[in-house]
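Entry 14. Ran structure prediction on the chain below.
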Amino acid sequence: MGWMKLNTVLVTGFLALTAGCQLTLSSGLGNDNAATSGNYIVALQITDTSDPRYPVVITTPKITVIAEQEASISIGEANKQFIETEVVINEGELTIGSTEFSIIKGERHASGKITALVGQAAELQTGGFRIKALVEPQSANRE
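Output, structure tokens:
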């Protein structure tokens, strides 16, 4: 798994330098239980709240996650902005999604973890950023 993260960081850096903006999605699909596990959509909203009068939404990615699998997303730009997020959905009596994140924007850094029940939004304010997460089951009849 370490090689994949290194590869993601290298590709992110290369594309950020050459294209100005890049997005990488990955999901571990090696589990034999994947066919019977549920699929979920994790919608994130990351907002820069360093000036509370003028909050600026930085990004609103959506990640498809298979239950009990880890998925990640990395977003980088040439202007010293980088966001890395890992998501895990745990099914059980209560199905929850855990989102760990790390944000670098200029000289500011923030990181943390949000846990949300499926269907309920969760929010965390830290380091001049607001992170909202909503976990919803993915419809089985999507094409």
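DSSP finds one helix and ten strands in the chain. Will compare against last week's run tomorrow.
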